[in-house]
Amino acid sequence: MYFFAVLPAVAILPPRVKRSVVCRLGKHLYEANGFHREATRVSLTEVLSNRGYSTQQITDQTVGTFETLVAEDMDAYCFPFWNSRNIGQYYEFEGLDHLDMALKRRKGALLFTGHVGRPCASLVALGLSGYPVTHLSRDSRREKSLPAPFRTYARFKLKWMKKGSGRELAFIDQDDYAQSSIAASLRVCQLLSKNEVVSMAIDVPPPLVKSTETCWFLNRQCRFPTGLVQLAYQTGAPVLPFFALGDDESRTGQKLIVQEEVKLCGDVGQDLQQCVDRLSQVILESPEQWLSWDSFRSFWSSDEQVRT
Q1: C-beta separation of 131 from 96 below 8 A
Q2: How far apart are alpha carbons 45 and 153 in whole angstroms?
Q3: Apex CA 288: angle with CA 287 and CA 290, to 5°?
Q4: What is the pLDDT of residues 142-160, one digit of tens each?
Q5: 100-115: pLDDT as tens digits
Q6: pLDDT-derived band of residue 306, with 50, 70 and 90 as boundaries?
Q7: CA distance 99 to 107
């Protein structure tokens, strides 16, 4: 009902009504998903209580993460109606000049983001704005650990994303990680050699990747995948963060921000830390928009050091 009746109905509502219904659905998911609610609340409390947030504010942020999840899920049913002429009605763009400057070097561009805000919609928005992006991702259509309704929903979502973004995703198959990751890396290198744009999320839980490095993240030592910086070293492609956030102050309610390039020094640990710092800053500014609070502990390094 949620994926194939509720979300399509919400997607066609007028913007103001849509926002109100998304909030109500988010609160319903918050109340109905006790395990994820508690895991999210515990993680938010650990991070935000030291930043002056009250118990009520932390509860509001917890509810907000479920509202963000509903909005991200709902976006898939909007993709078929977006095009190059009307995308400005749905998104405001900031920092595209950073991407333009990077592409002038003719080495392509490596964009990175996190599971913040509405990352899938951002790929469609960039493609329709003249910046087709190939995104490196797990194949959620085939992962048996995911519920069957979600896998079916993912098939529609990925099909519409391909049409809007102008590019098919580069998949890594968790059941055949070694071979699929090699194939995906080769494809990424080929795309960058043609001055194409490739993107990936860096907040992938460590158990799902092969190579990780320890970084400080939200005042804890956490493990993050090194694939982004390794690809940058191999190809010479510039690395830029981008984030698609809900923004009530913008005209459209959504903003896509491309930040300035991360200047790499050649040390994997230091360069990855720079990228993680960009993600941390966005999360701390809009904590209700990070969709991975419930899996925060899976990032923790084994020594679990905490920065005071």
Answers
A1: yes
A2: 32
A3: 70
A4: 777 778 888 899 999 999 9
A5: 999 999 999 999 999 9
A6: low
A7: 12
The architecture in CATH of the region 82-299 reads 3-Layer(aba) Sandwich (3.40)
DSSP label of 261: P
User: Does pTM surpass 0.85?
Assistant: yes
At CA 279, angle to CA 282 and CA 190, rounded to 5?
Answer: 130
Contact 120, 243 (CB under 8 A): no
- Per-residue confidence (pLDDT) for residue 74, from 0 to 100: 96
Under 8 Å between Cβ of 154 and 140: yes
Type of residue found at 306: V
Q: Tokens representing 146?
A: 């995911």
Answer yes or no: are the C-beta atoms of 224 and 272 closer than 8 Å.
yes
pLDDT at 269 over 80: yes
- Total count of residues recorded for the chain: 308
**Helix or strand holding residue 30 (H, E):** helix 15-32
